[in-house]
Amino acid sequence: MFLFVCVYAHDNQLNSIIIILIFCLLDYLLRDTKVIKLVPENLLKKRKKYQAIKATEAKLALLQKRKVQKGRPLRFKRLEDFLKHGKRQHRDERRIQRAKERPLTDLPPPKNSLAFIVRIREIKGVSPKVMKILHMFRLRKIFSGTFLRINKTSLRMLKTVEPYVAWGFPNLKSVRELILKRGQARVSKRKVALTDNAFIEEHMGKHGIICLEDLIHEIYSVGKNFKAASQFLLPFKLSVPRHAARDQVGLLKDIGAPGPRAEDINKVIRQLN
């Protein structure tokens, strides 16, 4: 463009000004150009080889991670564990078969229609029937507890899992302390502590439960919305003394043997809550 102006301009003074501007522009462009440093060829080859090695390692690490996530890694299991679990499973099946032949005990009085169950034993190698009932009670972890309505079906299920749980009839004080101290609900895969009545009203208002006291009353009285209220509560994760958690003998001395406890379940709740 500048050359075109120089050729067709008739004024010599204008041509001189344009030539000066062109030289100034060239000088500015040459001054700002960056100098590219030359790198030896052997160094470029080393860099390229190193980048290829790192890319391969990253790809292998990603494949290994996906392989591990697809299935659990194999664990070595001793023969003694197989024998121990087999004997326990066989013993459970024989005990369940004998319990079917025995007559069912009478139902407790209506005032004892609420039971609290806490799992106090490990369940490795137990019978599939026992495992299924414990999962129905949501007792997947040791020292976890839930509330249950007492009827013929629940009594039969409690007889099946009796060697692994302790259960009894809690009073109003125990129910209140459990819900106030350890009450939690799950919302959108997130655990939420029951400390806000607005939260309870939002999720349980359709059942007539608008505050924490309504929830406690519905659980203790085993009302018509007991199932919804108990499902709203997550299983209670109870705490255990350190010496009882480490020593099996100490555990039996502090908490006692599994099975029905009637009113003594309140003492167990005091120890574990």
Automatic annotation (TrEMBL):
Name of the protein this chain belongs to: Ribosomal protein L7-like 1
Family in the record: Belongs to the universal ribosomal protein uL30 family.
Pfam families: Ribosomal_L30 (PF00327), Ribosomal_L30_N (PF08079)
InterPro entries the UniProt entry points to: Ribo_uL30_ferredoxin-like_sf (IPR036919), Ribosomal_uL30 (IPR039699), Ribosomal_uL30_CS (IPR018038), Ribosomal_uL30_euk (IPR005998), Ribosomal_uL30_euk_arc (IPR035808), Ribosomal_uL30_ferredoxin-like (IPR016082), Ribosomal_uL30_N_euk (IPR012988)
UniProt entry tagged with the keyword Ribosomal protein: yes
Database matches in PANTHER family: 60S RIBOSOMAL PROTEIN L7, RIBOSOMAL PROTEIN UL30-LIKE
CC per GO annotation: ribonucleoprotein complex; ribosome
